[in-house]
Amino acid sequence: MNIGWIGTGLMGVPMAHRLLQGNFPLVAYNRTPAKLEPLRQAGAVVAESVAELLPQCQVVILMLTDAAAIRELLLNDTVRPLLPQHTVIQMGTIAPSESCCLQEDFTADGADYFEAPVLGSIPEAQAGQLQIMVGSTPEQFQQWLPVLQLMGTPQLIGPVGTAAALKLALNQLIASLTTAFASSLSFVQQYGVPVDRFMEILRHSALYAPTFDKKLQRMLEGNYANPNFPTKHLLKDTNLFLKEAVTAGLQVDSLEGVRQILERACALGLADADYSALRVAVQPRSMS
């Protein structure tokens, strides 16, 4: 079975590598051709367009930035006639309402569709240890389980939309926890509290989350290069969560503040930096 892969960003490349290592023939496409080179060298066939990719595969996996990119690449007049008899697996982070609309459109065009967003970063993707949240029918889940298992641990959450909602809920926690930690870290430093003492007490409390230690050194050194997850993508996901949460009637005042901090970090030139760079937007200018 040939697998099509569209989207070779920070996560897409190591995830696609896992399929090649599992001896699945892979056909890959990316709008920036240079990003396909690692997969070409690993044995993937490189397609010059989505229209060239689809006839060579039975299933196509999407790891794209947003729903707009999916629509632009696959739901256009050139590609739509090629969709029948294909399965589309959407693994990026989009809103549940967007995923449900995509399901309707792909189904209308004769394709099968489900969602499988992932939790984890580049090391987990390379090791095949991602948590994969699947929004599908039980039949779809069982059919594609051997493929998904090469990339991590799949769990069936419910129908299309449920896994997308869970993924946004988790990414909201990434934004909120990192902002809260950056604020506390900057605060104690302003008042001369040793960082080691702050962390020692925090680690032995119910307030601790492992992500604090993962981001601590970056924040202390101001080293936000080589991101696992860029600030601009966390801002995108925060905006998606806010839009869906408001529609659901939730109060999101606190997250509005987090969004402002993420927007400020991007405005400071840190859009492509690791998302822990939001600390720059939190701390006083005297510490920057």
* CATH topology group of the largest domain: Rossmann fold
Architecture per CATH nomenclature, i.e. the level-2 architecture of the largest domain: 3-Layer(aba) Sandwich
What radius of gyration results from the CA coordinates?
A: 20 Å
Number of strands: 9
In order across it, which strands form the biggest sheet? 3-2-1-4-5-6
CATH top level of the largest domain is Alpha Beta
CATH superfamily of the largest domain: NAD(P)-binding Rossmann-like Domain
By secondary-structure content and strand pairing, the structural class works out as alpha/beta
Q: Specify the helix fraction band.
A: 40-55%
The profile of the biggest β sheet is: 6 strands, parallel
Order of helices and strands: EHEHEHEHEHEEHEHEHHHHHH
Could you explain how this protein is built, in words?
The radius of gyration is 20 Å and the shape is globular. The longest helix is centred in the middle third of the chain and has 29 residues, at 162-190. The chain has two domains: 3-158, Rossmann fold, CATH 3.40.50.720; 165-287, N-(1-d-carboxylethyl)-l-norvaline Dehydrogenase, domain 2 (Orthogonal Bundle). The termini are far apart. The chain contains 13 helices and nine strands. With 288 residues, it is an alpha/beta fold. 52% of the residues lie in helices and 13% in strands. A six-stranded parallel sheet has the order 3-2-1-4-5-6, with helices on both faces.
Topology:
Elements: E1 3-6, H1 12-21, E2 26-29, H2 37-42, E3 45-46, H3 50-53, E4 59-62, H4 67-74, E5 87-90, H5 96-108, E6 112-115, E7 118-119, H6 122-127, E8 130-135, H7 138-149, E9 152-158, H8 162-190, H9 195-203, H10 210-221, H11 231-247, H12 253-270, H13 278-282
Parallel strand pairs: 1-2, 1-4, 2-3, 4-5, 5-6, 8-9
Antiparallel strand pairs: 7-8
Helix pairs in contact: 8-10, 8-11, 8-12, 11-12
